[in-house]
Design brief:
The complex is a heterodimer of chains A (110) and B (120).
Chain A (H helix, E strand, L loop, with lengths): L4 E3 L2 E4 L5 E6 L6 E7 L6 E7 L2 E5 L6 E5 L5 E5 L8 E8 L5 E2 L3 E5 L1
Parallel strand pairs in A: 2-11
Antiparallel strand pairs in A: 1-3, 3-8, 4-5, 4-9, 5-6, 7-8, 9-10, 9-11
Chain B lengths: L3 E2 L4 E5 L4 E3 L2 E2 L7 E7 L6 E7 L7 E2 L2 E6 L4 E6 L8 E8 L12 E3 L3 E6 L1
Classes of the chains: A mainly beta (110), B mainly beta (120).
Amino acid sequence: AAGVIQSPRHLIKEKRETATLKCYPIPRHDTVYWYQQGPGQDPQFLISFYEKMQSDKGSIPDRFSAQQFSDYHSELNMSSLELGDSALYFCASSLLDTQYFGPGTRLTVL
Amino acid sequence: AQKITQTQPGMFVQEKEAVTLDCTYDTSDPSYGLFWYKQPSSGEMIFLIYQGSYDQQNATEGRYSLNFQKARKSANLVISASQLGDSAMYFCAMREEANAGGTSYGKLTFGQGTILTVHP
């Protein structure tokens, strides 16, 4: 069965640089979620989209923005990167209740 | 206030034995969902099992079952016949009512996780 695809899988950036993370949800799933998981922590909700419209927002820094495109893929844009942004970023998609997670993008900020 | 509490930072079990991972939750929503995810050392987040707040029966998925006690607000995961490959971090998560302004299902709130180690 098709799964959530995330790219890139690993990303290394310098402080103050910009990063773009991409997510391709499971076909026919109408909701996309982004989560951030810091080292040794549980995942924290950032933002979600339902049918290409933002549906909910969590503790997402103003330096971050996201959108969902007409083909349902989503991108998380992160600017002015800080050391504390180093984390595993998950995208998840759902059609009903269950959220299925992608493999994650591991971002390292140096 | 912590909405999802996993009180066991680490658990050990012998291969082929059963193990219970504890999870308690706090919500005032009448409709919610409870989930368990497995995160191996490789990092991916694998869905294991789901229990809806209105479900009368405890959820089961193969070797996984969810011991749902609504009055006690607990949703413990039971893994039967543990295997070496079950060694991982396990997260309990809750989905409350969706955002009132939207029509999608809501975000997940996770517990702190329990590291399970299966010994041969």
